[in-house]
Design brief:
By secondary structure, this protein is mainly β. Helices cover 12% and strands 48% of the residues. The strands form 2 sheets. Strands 1, 4, 5, 6, 7 and 8 form a 6-stranded antiparallel β-sheet that branches. Strands 2-3 form a two-stranded antiparallel sheet.
């Protein structure tokens, strides 16, 4: 299994998905049950001032592993998660001729 490049993000956020199946009844009440047996994490990362080589490394990794799961090591807890890239495109911004920035979203599978 591929491992996401060990590049430190400038911004890192985690979100716990807690999806529910909800049914509304005519009596005015609602019943909810969990869709999944476990919570999934969504990871938001922003990379600023990446060298062109590191930005290309991130881009190439995501393109090579599109639709596939891969390992990601959380830079804060050092826990390994199996994730997928959650996006249909990847926007890389030119900060200068030598530096790039990008934001990505990963979802635990």
């Amino acid at each position: 299994m591929a491992i996401f490049p060990q590049i430190a993000p400038n911004s890192f956020e985690e979100e716990d998905l807690i999806p529910l199946n909800s049914v509304s009844y005519s009596g005015g009440y609602e019943q909810s049950t969990p869709k999944l047996l476990r919570n999934q994490k969504v990871i938001y990362m922003t990379f600023s001032s990446l060298t062109v080589a590191k930005a290309t490394q991130v881009r190439d990794f995501l393109i090579e592993n599109k639709g596939l799961s891969f390992s990601f090591v959380n830079p804060l807890t050092l826990e390994t998660h199996e994730v997928k890239y959650k996006g249909d495109s990847l926007k890389v911004k030119w900060e200068s001729p030598l530096y790039r920035s990008t934001s990505i979203v990963l979802q635990e599978v």
